[in-house]
Predict the 3D structure of the following.
Amino acid sequence: MKISTVLEKGKPVFSFEFFPPKTPEGVLHLFETIEQLKPLSPSFVSVTYGAGGSTRELTVDLVRRIKNELGIEAMAHLTCVGAGKDEIDHVLYRLKEFGIENVLALRGDPQNGQGAFVVPSDGFSYASELTAHIRKNFNFSLGGACYPEGHIECGTTGRGHGSTGGRDLKKDLEHLRMKVEAGVDFMITQLFFDNNYFFEFVERAHKSGIRIPIIPGIMPITNVNQVKRFTKMCGASIPNVLLSELESVEQDSAAVTKIGVRHATEQCQNLLKQFAPGIHFYTLNKSSATKAILESLVALGYVKK
């Protein structure tokens, strides 16, 4: 089923994001993780695209298996990196052949060793161009990415809530409008740890006339050094109070996870109270933290099983 159709039903959607493992053992572990999360009845799961398109074939195979073997709706990430139109179309035709109906269209990060994104020969420069190409030639439900704190590469003049100072939020919103005009059906946000960023971003989007669903992306913190690395790469921020609390116990992984799960659960409760269309969990291919959060939301009545 298309994710756009699921969203039209008006009930919160809950979804999980996974990345393609590097080894056969990792693939086995991934499917064990998905099996553990399956009883929570996710609306869909997504599988990322490795840097430079390095996991292209594995991504396609994983979404095929998730949908056709496990019976869970799947969405494939697809980037502009390292592939021309013919290669991209080859991936899209394979996804269509396997019954996949959902694609998350992204520009993608620069390939390893390249400081800036390099446009492939006969390829696309932006996610909006990739989206327009898919919308014109295929019949997928299309998602796009958005950035509550502003894209890390976007401008140097904007100033919004907290650490978005230094990013051009107006320009970032113009890029979002280009994706919407190109044909995306819904957006999934970059991870964030302060809901004010999300609410302010949605308000700006609505004022500009954007009305498609914007699904917040939540990542439960389970490792302090890891989350610092992730936030540095993507330009997200961690509230000082939360960071101090995490750093005070960073040598105790169980304590870090407990704090991370508590904070993410509180984020989800607040987002759902304010009528967010759902939650997209960045699982890092692990089940326990996401499972604990969703089980708490079920117990509190935010999720109907």
Remarks:
- Residues 156-163 have pLDDT under 50 and may be disordered.
- The radius of gyration is 18 Å.
- Residues 3-299 form a domain with the TIM Barrel fold (CATH 3.20.20.220).
- The first strand starts at residue 13 and ends at 18.
